[in-house]
Amino acid sequence: MGAAELVNGIETKNQMRHEVDSERFYPYFSDDYLSIKVMPNWLKAFVLGYRVDSKARRPP
Hints:
Order of helices and strands: EHHHE
Oligomer: single chain
Low-confidence stretches: none
Distance between the termini: 27 Å
């Protein structure tokens, strides 16, 4: 399926931080917030209105 890793560096956390509602959801942001980096081997999506050639299995 893929791999995942925990991203806990303070500089990365500060880059990802959204100022809106941060104080309310994460009052101790540096201790309470943790990012998870996901690296899938494949990705499958179901998109309404998108058709695929069923024989070739690729977009027309």
